[in-house]
Design goal:
Bound molecules: zinc ion
Number of helices: 4
Helix content: 40-55%
CATH class: Mainly Alpha
Strand order of the largest sheet: 2-1-3
Structural class: alpha+beta
Order of helices and strands: EEEHHHH
Distance between the termini: 38 Å
CATH architecture: Orthogonal Bundle
Number of domains: 1
Strand content: 5-15%
CATH topology: Arc Repressor Mutant, subunit A
């Protein structure tokens, strides 16, 4: 079975089927497959082609998450549901992903 990214009302985002703290099922955010695929799109947008997606990147390589989610939703129709807070959910659920995400954002303007 696919792993999932979920949100516990009391303890925040987690990866898996139940909150590690209270064992609640929480609210479904997205599947691991979607989170991974999103990670690859993020890498593409932030590292290589922000302008192709119509994303404005500032001089420090930072982008607006709302603009980013809209840009990805416009380019990849199956991500029409994507919102800025989904990036936060991915980053909160898994420290490894936070590192990855921050790295991608930091290195976004090095092309
Ligand atoms: Zn919980």
């Amino acid at each position: 079975m696919d792993n999932m990214l979920r949100q516990c009302r009391a303890h925040g985002h987690f990866s898996g089927t139940n909150c590690a703290v209270c064992n609640e099922e929480g609210k479904f955010i997205m599947s691991d497959r979607e989170a991974n695929s999103l990670g690859r799109i993020l890498a593409l947008v932030l590292r290589h082609a922000p302008e192709k997606f119509g994303v404005d990147m500032d001089i420090n390589g930072w982008v607006n998450t709302r603009e980013l989610s809209e840009a990805i939703g416009n380019q990849r129709r199956h991500y029409h549901w994507l919102r800025g807070w989904h990036f936060e959910a991915i980053a909160n659920a898994d420290e490894k992903v936070i590192g990855l995400l921050l790295q991608k954002i930091e290195h976004g303007n090095e092309v």
